[in-house]
Known about the structure:
The protein is mostly beta strands. 0% of the residues lie in helices and 42% in strands.
Amino acid sequence: MASTLVLADDTGAATGSPAQGTTRVNPTTNWNWLNSTTVTTAPASAFIVIGTNSYERFRFGVITGTFTELSNGLWAHTAGTFGSNITLMGVVTSTYTTPAVTTNAALTEDMTTAIAIGSGQTVLFSTVGPEGAAPAATLTAAGYTQYLATQMLTASGAATGATATASLSLQFDET
């Protein structure tokens, strides 16, 4: 018995109720923060201009397989150091909004500094999608995590070029 986790992205204009992106990329293969709402855009074609922000990324886990229960979901930036004048903001949420480059005030967790996964944000689960209206602390059938929303903010003085590699970790217990 084992669960299988694939990471996915919602992007595009918010649609439906509850809202989700018009495009669901499953699995996602590009984890870069971009100056583009299209998550499949090559990073070299969507640099973030210094002093501006990336578009928000609304990532989530898709969970399949055979398992009894998943619980204790956590998410955090666990390794890697961003350069000066770069801030990573994020939040675990069931609310999708159309991605924009304006600073998203709903992303209230400063994730710039790596921490131990045990101190990460709580992640809940749903069988209907990351936008599920009533996420729960446990999952007993195939389902999803909430959105793991992030946005990279840059200030003048940030170095040009790619940032250092960072690890964002998603952890849960499985029985």
